[in-house]
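Exercise: predict the structure of this protein bound to fe (ii) ion.
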Amino acid sequence: MTASLARLSAAAPPDDFIAALDADGAAVVDGFLTPGQLEALNTDFDRIVAGLAPGVRRPTMPAMEEFYGATTVRFDGLPAKSVAFVEVMQAPVLTGLADHYLLPHCLDYLFNTGQFIEIRPGETAQRLHRDEDAWRFGPLVAAQIAGGPRAQLEVEAMVALTDFTAANGATRVVPGSHLWPADREPEPAEILQAEMPAGSALLYLGSTIHGGGANRTVAEARRGMFVGYVVGWLRTEENMFLTVPLEQVRGFPKRVQEVLGYKAHRAIGVVDVGDPGAVLTQ
Ligand SMILES: O=C(O)CCC(=O)C(=O)O
Ligand SMILES: [Fe+2]
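Solution:
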């Protein structure tokens, strides 16, 4: 059987997205961004990209430099950098999936990544990985070794801000790998590329194997955004408290404040042993 990815329109019923992600761990949604959002995001980010060199600026471990790529420009903290992004991070297609996959495992989820990723010509393919392996410690490793069912920890979207093509580094993805044992490696025929026009998005689970593609073009940058949510009892990959200034958070909708961490998960994430949301009105 040839591997394939479901393709849905943003207006499809929520159950269709769930059926596709249950089956494949990934799906492409066309029209995830409105044309206006696409243009606003690119305009906001153009200014920032112009001042940044490719590569990781302050790696926390040697493996990070290779993983994130020497010819790729990344920056995070997107809720602070684009008004349009604050709207996009609340897209019902994405939060509907977070409700479905994450709420059975937590009281509420948190915004985990708002990251700009521009893969430039000459970049090599990123190592295939599961994003949930960011938390590959203790109990999660034990569960994987025991072959137990995976609790869903993360729901994500790789949003295309330029067309994603096989040549310019469209994300590689392995449909069905969310159900595989931890040690099963994909065969070449099982790896697809999420080719899609600007404004579409690849939706996927934290348990789905994927990675950025190689950019084999001469002059075409592949620009995307990695936007995702994680169960509220894990530490988020990006430190939202430091990347999104408090003054800006005060102006955001309440739900955005909550997913940025201004809501405790019972006793986790408290301020003054209580509701962290109180700092927004002090
Ligand atoms: O850039 C991409 O297409 C994927 C990036 C990715 O998977 C990651 O950085 O975790
Ligand atoms: Fe990833």
